[in-house]
Design a protein that fits this description.
Blueprint: E1 2-6, E2 19-24, H1 34-45, E3 49-54, H2 61-65, E4 77-79, E5 83-87, E6 90-95, H3 116-123, E7 132-135, E8 145-147, E9 153-155, H4 159-169, E10 173-176, E11 184-190, E12 196-201, E13 216-219
Parallel strand pairs: 1-2, 2-3, 3-4, 6-7, 7-10, 10-12
Antiparallel strand pairs: 1-13, 5-6, 8-9, 11-12
Length: 220
């Protein structure tokens, strides 16, 4: 199965090759206007994938206040919010929630929970047998680093999500974005079948909000 992963678009429309599954991990528009979401879903409808899955991010206030009606979405596009679907014998779950971090824009706190304990309530909704987990936030310490002014690396991910991934769920694939400067792929945590969990930060934008990062493709 060919899977392409993109996130933190902020209005960008990357060129995509097409494949089996497209995963979009939130922050979809440039200015968070209702008409921009319509434009996004029309663009998404034209992309040549058998199935397309979208979650929201912390910039997507419109989606928090007016979530898409599933029946109104174009065919083969699925919007997940603490919900899941099954595709090709894979259990897929999507969750948009994030924790705030120092310097976060107060106008960009959609699906943001200030308390890590309350955030854990969202992670506990994830089925234990999920194969592909899609979140907006990274887990703590995994492709979540921001450079502080003194040159040190400041981790912004969820500690609760890290614990869930390591000790509870062990999905085969975790796809997220949120931290633009941490774009990339890593492998962690051998699972019950000795395969490593693949973590993908698929932010299209870099830290200067320039769309320089390529979509990440994986054969799954």
């Amino acid at each position: 199965m060919i899977i392409d992963c993109i996130g933190c678009l902020h209005g960008a429309r990357p060129e995509l090759q097409g494949g089996d599954l497209l995963i979009v991990t939130g922050d979809l528009t440039a200015r968070d206007k209702a008409w921009e979401y319509l434009d996004f879903f029309l663009w998404l409808d034209k992309q040549k994938y058998r199935k397309k899955i979208v979650i929201a991010g912390n910039h997507d206030n419109v989606l928090q206040n007016f979530p898409p009606i599933p029946e109104a979405l174009p065919k083969n596009i699925y919007y997940l919010c603490d919900s899941g679907i099954r595709y090709e014998d894979l259990n897929i779950w999507g969750s948009p929630w994030t924790a705030p971090f120092k310097g976060m824009n107060p106008k960009c706190k959609a699906f943001t929970i200030d308390n890590e304990d309350h955030l854990m309530d969202k992670w506990e909704l994830i089925p234990h047998d999920v194969d592909i987990l899609i979140t907006h936030t990274p887990a703590y310490g995994i492709l979540d680093g921001i450079l502080a002014p003194d040159g040190s690396l400041f981790h912004t991910g969820s500690k609760g999500l890290y614990g869930w991934l390591k000790y509870v769920g062990r999905p085969h694939l975790h796809v997220f974005s949120h931290i633009h400067e941490a774009h990339g792929r890593q492998e962690h945590f051998p699972s019950y079948n000795d395969k490593m969990m693949i973590s993908i930060n698929c932010s299209i934008m870099d830290e200067s909000y320039k769309p320089v990062n390529a979509p990440i493709r994986i054969s799954f």
